Amino acid sequence: MELKLRDKHVLVTGASKGIGLAIARSFAEEGARITLVSRREDALRGASAELRDHTGGIIDHITADLSKDADRAALFRQAPDIDLLVNNAGAIKSGPLSARSMDDWRTGFELKVWGYIHLCMLYAPRMRARGSGTIINIIGMGGRAVRPSYIIGAAGNAALIGFTNALGAETPQDNVRVFGINPSATVTDRMTDRLRAAAQDRFDDESRWEELLDPDAFPFGRPAQPQEVAALAVMLASPRVHYLSGTVIDMDGGGQWAG
Q1: Bridge partners of 14?
Q2: Long-range contacts: 214-219, Cβ < 8 Å, 24+?
Q3: Contacts 24+ apart (CB under 8 A), 95-103
Q4: How confident is the model at residue 184 (pLDDT cuts 50, 70, 90)?
Q5: pLDDT at 43 exceeding the cut of 90
Q6: Which of 94, 159, 209, 226 could potentially form a cystine with 199 if both were Cys, beta carbons 3.0 to 4.6 Å apart?
Q7: The CATH number of domain 9-186+224-251 is 3.40.50.720
Q8: pLDDT per residue over 45-78, tens digit each?
Q9: 131-168 pLDDT per residue, tens
Q10: CA distance 89 to 105
Q11: Mean of all residue pLDDT scores within the chain
């Protein structure tokens, strides 16, 4: 199926690795022009080269610390006229309330919650004035299936789910769509780094990290893959799915209902 995304300009935050890079790659494979955004210039340069080699597409990058108001505003000045914004940058520490400090709360919210909201504040009016555009917020199941062991993520992601619902209800009057995706546990560097360290401790061999994944703990017997999240994002971004806004899709394999 032709998704009609060729030559669209897609800006992806948190795009140097993991879900963000997978999303950028999938859009590039559809012929879109990609701008990668992350705080690490070296990682961005490598990711940009990888995507160019893989797709032959137009790939550029902008280095920005999206936990800072000034960097978000500078990003908008450098790339104001995009067709699609994918908010993906964010890392929130796990742990119960008793284990987390106010600095942990502020750090998690500055990058992910305020980061997503501020970029929407910058880009949505531009898109609405133009009469076209799409914003995709990659949020997380921590805001839906809330757990005390991930209390900052429960609060932050729940806020972004509500924000996406509300903004996505308003923008269709100007032909702009806003929707979200809640991935559950996904095989990213963050997960594998933790499991490699655990495998090194248990087996004295970090390469055996996959043995620590309990199939009974996951729907389909495994965690999600970044490319699966990317495929959903690209499909739903297509004009062929135009009648979609304000929705946040839970991509958890039905895990929240499994008890």
Answers
A1: none
A2: 218/185, 218/253, 218/255, 219/252, 219/253, 219/254, 219/255, 219/258
A3: 95/149, 95/150, 95/151, 95/152, 96/148, 96/149, 96/151, 97/148, 97/151, 100/151, 100/152
A4: very high
A5: yes
A6: 209
A7: yes
A8: 999 999 999 999 999 999 999 999 999 999 999 9
A9: 999 999 999 999 999 999 999 999 999 999 999 999 99
A10: 16
A11: 95
The set of residues, in sequence order, having a beta carbon less than 8 Å from that of 150 and lying 6+ positions away, is 92, 94, 95, 142
* pLDDT the model gives residue 259: 66
- Strands of the 84-87 sheet, one edge to the other: 59-63, 33-38, 9-13, 84-87, 133-138, 176-183, 248-251
Alpha carbon separation from 196 to 43, 207, 216 (Å, rounded): 21, 7, 20
CB atoms within 10 A of CB 108: 22
Distances (CA, A) of 52 to 16, 35, 41, 153: 14, 12, 16, 34
- Could you read off the pLDDT of 195-248 as tens digits, one per residue? 788 788 888 888 998 888 889 889 999 999 999 999 999 999 999 999 999 999
Locate 154 and state its tokens.
Answer: 């429960």
